[in-house]
């Protein structure tokens, strides 16, 4: 399973944006966010205001899912990751470390005052058609 995480992490570190989905009252909603991947905690760090529609939903129902993908023109080059996990607002101390890492990758984030969130990933599934049509690499958190 660790080898799978290494393969998936290599891809995730090259990407910048994830699509995040959440649900409230059986109604789905999604948003796009810049992220950093924390391989040590197997988590994503994002920044978003808590008063947005998705921010309000995630405070009530922290179960989330999402995708990270390239936009290839040829089906044989499709590569992307699906994920599920639990999101939470970082504490003040956690946020200091996370914001520092986030701003290293996205310097413009220094001027943003939106709170930092962490998505603790439960499952990652990577599709890589370059390794064969619909080739899957899967990682799951062991409780």
Second CATH tier, the architecture: Roll
Question: What can be said about the biggest beta sheet?
Answer: 8 strands, antiparallel
* Overall shape: globular
**CATH fold naming:** Pnp Oxidase, Chain A
CATH class designation: Mainly Beta
C-alpha Rg (nearest Å): 15 Å
Report the total helices.
Answer: 3
Number of strands: 8
Summing up helix and strand content along with how strands pair, one would put the structural category as alpha+beta
Provide mean pLDDT, rounded: 94
Order of helices and strands: HEEEEHEEHEE
Task: Catalogue the unreliable spans.
Answer: none
Whole-number tally of structural domains = 1
Distance N terminus to C terminus? 14 Å
Going by CATH, what is the homologous superfamily?
Answer: Electron Transport, Fmn-binding Protein, Chain A
Q: What proportion of the residues form beta strands (DSSP E)?
A: 35-45%
Instruction: State the helicity in percent bands.
Output: 10-25%
């Amino acid at each position: 399973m660790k080898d799978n995480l290494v393969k998936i992490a290599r891809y995730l570190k090259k990407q910048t944006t994830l699509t995040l989905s959440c649900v409230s009252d059986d109604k789905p909603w999604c948003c796009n966010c810049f992220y950093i991947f924390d391989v040590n905690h197997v988590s994503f760090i994002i920044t978003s205001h808590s008063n947005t529609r998705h921010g309000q939903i995630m405070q009530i129902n922290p179960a989330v899912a999402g995708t990270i993908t390239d936009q290839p023109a040829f089906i044989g080059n499709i590569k992307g990751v699906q994920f599920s996990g639990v999101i939470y607002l970082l504490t003040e101390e956690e946020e200091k470390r996370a914001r520092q890492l986030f701003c290293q990758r996205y310097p413009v984030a220094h001027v943003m005052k939106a709170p930092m969130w962490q998505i603790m990933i439960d499952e990652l599934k990577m599709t890589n058609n370059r390794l064969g049509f619909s080739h899957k690499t899967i990682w799951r958190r062991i409780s």
